[in-house]
Fold this sequence. Notes:
By secondary structure, the chain is an all-alpha fold.
Amino acid sequence: xxxxxxxxxxxxxxxxxxxxxxxxxxxxxxxxxxxxxxxxxxxxxxxxxxxxxxxxxxxxxxxxxxxxxxxxxxxxxxxxxxxxxxxxxxxxxxxxxxxxxxxxxxxxxxxxxxxxxxxxxxxxxxxxxxxxxxxxxxxxxx
Length: 142
């Protein structure tokens, strides 16, 4: 112990001294607590390897899922599209005779059925195309 301070207070992993913060001193953490600076140096190739670690491979798009799961997913998306289309129809009827500003104020905080309908159509088409391509490749290869 030098000058009444514990030596652990300025310990670090890399070798640089790290002083206790004022907030740590106020809370009395200078006796039983110390912070360690941890620094890891990586080169460009290591960073690239770590970014690609959990990346999906190109084979993911070619795998066909089970038919029952795919048909249930299609059914769910189509039922949600039915509700979004009826909501969109109601919104169109409500917008008749209103100015652009009134329509904007009336739509604040509400779900946009047109956007959800477009997203559902895009999702349905992409899933069906991937399922079809995966099934065709499986038939041709095996």
